[in-house]
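Take a look at the protein record below with the fold in mind.
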Amino acid sequence: MKNLTLLLTALFLSPLSADEAREKPNVLIILADDLGFADVGFNGCKDIPTPHIDAIANTGVKFESGYVTHPYCSPSRAALMAGRYQQRFGHECNPQEATATNNDGIPTSEILLPARLKEAGYTTGLIGKWHLGVADQFKPLNRGFDEFFGFLSGGYDYFGKPPKDGEPIYRGEEPVDSDSITYLTDNFGNEAVDFITRHKAEPWFLFLSFNAPHAPDQATQEYLDRFPDLKGRRKIYAAMVSAMDDAIGDAMANIKATGQEYNTLVFFLSDNGGRTHVADNTPLKGHKGNTYEGGVRVPFVATWPGTIPAGSKFDFPVSSLDIHATALALAGVSMKDTEGVDLMPFVTGKDTNAPHETLFWRVSGGWDYAVLKGSEKLVKPGWTDTPELYDMDSDISEENDQAANRPETLSRLQTLYEKWDEKNIEPLWDDPHKENVAKEREEETGCMPKQ
């Protein structure tokens, strides 16, 4: 029976004392970058140990069907921060090159999560990757964050070497000496520990936004030595994931050491599916860049000891939009402008219904799109005009297209998509991502030799 473990465990939870929980809990969102679905232990990974990430699942809830709103970096992050589908406000593609005159970025008309929580009395911090605009009006400190340590663009050298004519690492608005960067993942973990310690006496929101294991493929020898049996890019990728796991472990240990364990809600997920050639999305079809499960279904867990039943599993689909809504609900902030739902009644067993009737995806103005309603999923890949239909209960790998056998279902889902799409706008800018995905598809099907 769905959520039986979750319901039974919830019955035996003892309420927290006043000393164990404040009225407004801390919120920590940990975001990995391009992490494969099967590259964490709780999803069956065998060659990359992730004990600290797994501990989040073991002490909390694993979302079996956890989704993001877009199959690549910046649009996915835009929806998480705005609490609305990114197609509503045109942030549907990655911003172009990181130059100060570039006006690609999440529109200033969108009130972001840190700004909403700041008004509710939270201290807000961003550590890591931003990727939501580099011009002054888009910078983190102008969008609700009190503190920022990281970079503004989509990728960065892990040893701190700034890109040619690109943005540096920042602390607040001041560039950081690149010589002070040892290994970005380690630096981000250390900064998180420091933030958690300094703000232990007040409610805080921290967005710990790793660029690992996104390219470039770079790791320290310490982590490479952990994987003597792996070769090539998979070895480097494994080292990058392991470094991120250690950094997360340091942050989680400090939450406990500073007495904040029972007053901190932690979410961990990836911004999209794993990238090709190095990540493992087994048993899912597809990868970063397309709307098959491998592009949008991600490792997704949460913990809040004493509130979320430990070791529970949640079967119904949830969205990254729900993280935004849950944080607002816990802070006592109105959710009227958001498209997510507060997950706490569901994960504590108070509400046994599905949080969502339908989830939607759209890439590059409809070049690629998908709809999930219950177990029925329509996918219209970018390289064809022919929609496909899958039953996710029996075919998680999307191997058996049922479109020809169930035309009425296909038509119904297509109508749902079109009705949802009426509220969207065209992308405010374009990028070459769809061409890259099409090229990858040609390579995978043998129509084009790999470069």
About this structure: The radius of gyration is 21 Å. Residues 95 and 162 are 18 Å apart (CA to CA). The chain is about 25% helix and 15% strand.
